[in-house]
Amino acid sequence: MGSPSQDQDAGLERLKLLEEKLACAPARSLQWLELIDAIRIEADAYRKSLDAEQAEAVHGAEPGPAAGPRAVRRRAIPLRGRTAPRR
């Protein structure tokens, strides 16, 4: 697989090609709907690659430590409930 930049460039080119095909497709046809779906999928992958590249630039290549479990204090539950109303 190529570098992230090359992958992004290829994804952008695929998006442009799909947009050109969409412009020539009859509106609301099966081909048009399939192209819309393909564009959504390709755009989502492109956005994810941009987000990953940006996160790497901000945080570095090493993933940070995951947040550990939080200590949750629980209220003590009385073992016995009241059987009679308080007077």
Which characteristics define this entry?
single chain; mainly alpha; 2 helices
Describe this structure in words.
There is one protein chain. The protein is mostly helical and 87 residues long. It has a domain of 56 residues. The protein is 59% helix and 0% strand. Helix 1 runs antiparallel to helix 2. The longest helix has 30 residues. The mean pLDDT is 83.
Q: Flag low-confidence runs.
A: none
Instruction: State the order of secondary-structure elements, H for helix, E for strand.
Output: HH
| Total beta strands | 0
In DSSP terms (H or I, runs of 4 or more residues), the helix count works out at 2
Radius of gyration: 27 Å
Mean pLDDT: 83
Shape: elongated
Q: Could you state the oligomeric state of the chains shown?
A: single chain
The N- and C-terminal alpha carbons lie at a distance of 77 Å
For the report, how would you describe the main beta sheet? none
The class by helix and strand makeup works out as mainly alpha
Percent range for helical residues? 55-70%
Residue share in β-strands: under 5%
What order do the helices and strands come in, and which of them pair?
Layout: H1 4-24, H2 30-59
In short:
By secondary structure, the protein is mainly α.
